[in-house]
Amino acid sequence: MTTVHRPVPAGASRSPVKGWLAVLAVTLGIFSLMTSELLPVGLLTPVGSDLDVSEGTAGLMVTVPGLVAAVTAPLVTVATGRVDRRVVLALLIGLMGAANLASAFATGFAVVLVARFLIGVSVGGFWSIAGGIALRLVPEQHVPRATAVIFGGVETASVLGVPTGTFIGDLSGWRTAFAVVGILGLTSLACMLFLMPKVPAEQSITFADLPKVFRGNAGVRAGIAVTFLVITGHFLAYTFVRPILQDDGVGDGLIGALLLAFGVAGICGNFIAGALVARRLRQTVVGIAVVLPAAMVVFALVGDSAVAAGAVLVLWGLGYGAVPVTFQTWILDAAPDAGEAASSLYVSTFNLAIAFGAFAGGLAVDGIGTTSVLWIGAVLALLALVVVRGAPRAEG
Question: For the CA atoms of the chain, what is the radius of gyration?
């Protein structure tokens, strides 16, 4: 598949400066959402202790929004099919901000779970629409770079947002951390209202369009299959990187630094891919499907050295950082006339793969052994090469 050059009237007629300001507003929204979704990872113990639930139960704060996002991505896209996209994105980011503020003042865990449910709605709906919004905001020649900037918010949330939120929680309490993320969401809302232009819905989407775009478009089917295999393989393995490193004798202090290196490499991988996908989309996907399993296999063989583990995690981070912008571009190029419907299926698959990968990894760790997840994840990611090989090449 090669990049399809297509007219983008809304973006082509806009000032590049105003368009890029709008892109930055969307990027802040993505950053806020992903920080919000992942924030509980570093705060499970204090939340569980304060609200009198176990850490396992507190883990539902991560599981619930992921599953809800998978279900609601297509639902929100269809339900808002006739509504200005700026309005939809603003409402969703505002919902996220309000939900986090509700969590900050929650008196029981049930309230927190309801708030996390609403955050899942925000993540699924926002991502499915924002993934292709660059097409409507900037001139066509800027679209790949703008898309990379938007998805850079995902990686930056992992590197800066979550650690900062955890630090605030350790310093002032978990409620303060949730409140700060809530305020960040409302700040994102203001930026969208002031910096984004009106982005009228281009077409009404129905539920019938979702299976239609999947059944009738071999490129979309290939993109969905590749996404499921690569994301499942990645999260099956990466979810258990910390215990793998601990089993290899790497100290907790070093683990934090190694995961930070992974995140920084991910940011670099995102922008490298953003520069490549315009002309080398298929090759970039192949590169991801080679780099990720290679990193997992090498990690399984030499991960007992902190230096070697660090080098492998940098390679792994580069590969995974390239995933969001590359796979989103594949989906958009495969369905240029049904971008939002295809994107909603992509976002749903992405989130389902996260949940399934983490669940399957847990079964493998308990039933086979900790390092088994690296080998299984590598096999799944490699299978994506078979799908890419058989995928159609777009004309253009």
Answer: 20
Total residue count of the chain as it appears in this document: 396
Among 204, 220, 248, the domain-final residue is 204
What pLDDT digit, counting tens, does each position of 31-70 carry?
999 889 878 866 877 888 899 987 667 878 877 888 898 8
DSSP tag of 199: -
Buried b (16+ CB within 10 A) or exposed e, 226-251: bbbbbbbbbbbbbbbbeebbeebebe
Residue 346, Cα to own-chain centre: how many angstroms? Answer: 11
pLDDT beyond 60 at 8: no
The span from the CA of 185 to the CA of 101, in Å, is 10
DSSP 5: P
Measuring CA to CA, how many Å separate 148 from each of 15, 107, 133, 268, 386?
19, 40, 12, 10, 26
Residues 198 and 212 in one domain: no
The answer on 339 and 217 residing in a single domain is: yes
Tell me how far the alpha carbon of residue 311 is from its chain's centroid. Answer: 23
Residues 4 and 119 in one domain: yes
| Whether 125 contacts 92, CB under 8 Å | yes
Match 């995140």 to its residue by tokens.
263
Q: What does 70-124 look like in DSSP terms, one character per residue?
A: HHHHHHHHHHTTTS-HHHHHHHHHHHHHHHHHHHHT-SSHHHHHHHHHHHHHHHH
* 247 and 375 inside one domain: yes
Distances (CA, A) of 174 to 45, 164, 346: 10, 12, 32
- In this prediction, residues 283-298 reach a mean pLDDT of 94
Confidence of residue 92 (pLDDT cuts 50, 70, 90): very high
Domain boundary among 174, 204, 234: 204
Q: Tally Cβ neighbours within 10 Å of residue 171.
A: 9
**Residues 223, 178 share a domain:** no
Band (210; pLDDT cuts 50, 70, 90): confident
305 Cα distance to chain centroid: 30
Residues 260, 159: Cα–Cα separation, whole Å:
6
pLDDT at 15: 66
Check if the beta carbon of residue 30 is closer than 8 Å to that of residue 36. Answer: no
Question: Residue 239 is part of which domain span?
Answer: 206-396
Report helix, strand or coil for 392. coil
Tokens at 163, concatenated: 């650690």
Provide the pLDDT for residue 393: 65
